[in-house]
User: What shape does this take?
Amino acid sequence: MKTFVPKVDEIDRRWYLVDVDGQVLGRAAARIARILRGKEKPIFTPHMDTGDFVIVVNAAKVKVTGTKEEDKTYFHYTGYPGGARFDTLRRMRQRKPEQIIRHAVKGMLPKNRLGRSLFKKLKVYAGPDHPHAAQKPEPLDITPVKRSWS
Assistant: This one.
């Protein structure tokens, strides 16, 4: 039996709208990365882009657990000697709240050409408004499922 490999024109690309207001950062980022990668689809192929587009709104209202608001740091290097810059999560939320989601999702994608192309399909906005109404995005609920093991 031959392995099924989907052709590029056979892949159905959809647009999803994810509201992360009150969601935990890591859990939301993991689910978004799975959708970008296409792992939710039966035609998933590891070496191909079979994923969908994701629009994330309310990125400024994402939650973190524990003391990460003060303890978690983001590193940026300007390119100049002595140009190492460190920001806490709280300061990043004030200055560039979209970058929090982007950073978390990017770390969960492959570190190669495929990962860079998948990352371009992520659109993040700090507030509830976005300019992608023409794509007719479907709302997607990413709240974790409560399971009771008995």
Observations:
- The chain has five helices and six strands.
- Residues 58 and 127 are 4 Å apart (CA to CA).
